[in-house]
Amino acid sequence: MATHKLLLLPGDGIGPEVMREVEKIVGWFRKRGVGFETETDLVGGAAYDAHGVSISEAAMDRAQQADAVLFGAVGGAKWDSVPYAVRPEAGLLRLRKDLGLFANLRPAICYPALADASSLKREVVEGLDIMIVRELTGGVYFGEPKEIVTLEDGSQRAVDTQIYHTHEVERIARVAFDLARKRRNKVSSAEKFNVMKTGVFWRQVVTRIHKGEFSDVELEHVLADNCAMQLVRWPKQFDVIVTDNLFGDILSDIAAMLTGSLGMLPSASLGAEDPVTGQRKALYEPVHGSAPDIAGKGLANPIAMIGSFGMALRYSFGLLDEADRLDKAIANVLASGTRTKDIAAPGANAVGTQDVGDAIVKELEALS
Ligand code: NAD
């Protein structure tokens, strides 16, 4: 039986609380014969307190050796004044950089039971299931020059530089087309080819990869601003949206809000395929932060974290039946009304973090 190596990095604030619920789910699958080997280490403020850095070299080594990293959340007022290089977020950035995680996957799923929690009408969002694939390591956030310069006349000029290389667009396009094949077989590629050279280039490269390797998948090109509008108008027209770092940042937040609470949103970041094993380095994390306002109170919604583990089942371990069962268990628990405060129906009693984890384990049991 294959053993899947998981590194758990709970982090700070509600991170450890929601990670404990994932451990229950891992334990349940383990009892059912799925081989998981877990290690736990420190990241963020917790690592700073113990080691004076936001992630230790030993933890980085473990992350390199793991089949998947599960990351909780980092940060909090306690570490607001630590030196910039060792601030809690630096641990996450180091992981992304050293593991080469160039593809950020953010699903936006609207469970029928939560359709009324969205700011859009029920019929617009109910049953929504889209995936935003954002290029994560290139583009305008990293391009040089990046500066504010003072000119001879005393005025100033600010510059950010959007740069994309062929291989960067090719590899993110392949991730998107691959995913689409396992979903509803459609990719929408968003850029601004009408006003940006990188947009013209993005469109050319995506078209070439489509023609050469994925012509069975439906491809449409959409201007990023129109994509934003369409996401709010009729999001169910989309399956997989692939886009660059900047547009992806914005479009994924719009898509996120279609679904209700931050406590519901998982994400995955994937690296290049290993030429020998075909495995990708991968990190799975909820979209939310360490939520200091509710930390330690047992109020956090663990579904974003548990859903992130579900993505690991699907994308790192190929355990599709197990991932489907976990998704179904989450949907059933939500439909039964067992919900934390952030998503509780008006007037309904909210339950705690552990209750939701327990209910999902019970539902997994009932489904098997
Ligand atoms: P946040 O996501 O931590 O919280 C925003 C709001 O959403 C809060 O009211 C919080 O209570 C609520 N919330 C978040 N997750 C929830 C959950 N699972 N269940 C119920 N409610 C939930 O964002 P913030 O308040 O802007 O940041 C707090 C800290 O987290 C800061 O230090 C920030 O730097 C850090 N942060 C870390 C990450 C990360 O680790 N990836 C991401 C974002 C923010």
Content of β-strand = 15-25%
**Bound small-molecule species:** nicotinamide-adenine-dinucleotide
Q: State Rg.
A: 21 Å
Assign an overall shape: globular
CATH superfamily of the largest domain: Isopropylmalate Dehydrogenase
Number of helical stretches of at least 4 residues: 12
**SS elements, strand count:** 12
> Can you identify the CATH class of the largest domain?
Alpha Beta
Low-confidence stretches: none
Proportion of helical residues:
40-55%
> Structural class of the helices, strands and pairings?
alpha/beta
The largest β sheet comes out as:
10 strands, mixed
Q: In order across it, which strands form the biggest sheet?
A: 2-1-3-12-11-4-5-10-8-9
User: What is the fold-level CATH name, i.e. the topology of the largest domain?
Assistant: Isopropylmalate Dehydrogenase
The overall average pLDDT, rounded, is 95
Architecture per CATH nomenclature, i.e. the level-2 architecture of the largest domain:
3-Layer(aba) Sandwich
Elements, N to C (H/E): EHEHHEHEHEEEHEHEHEHEEHHH
The total tally of domains equals 2
Q: What is the rounded distance between the termini? A: 20 Å
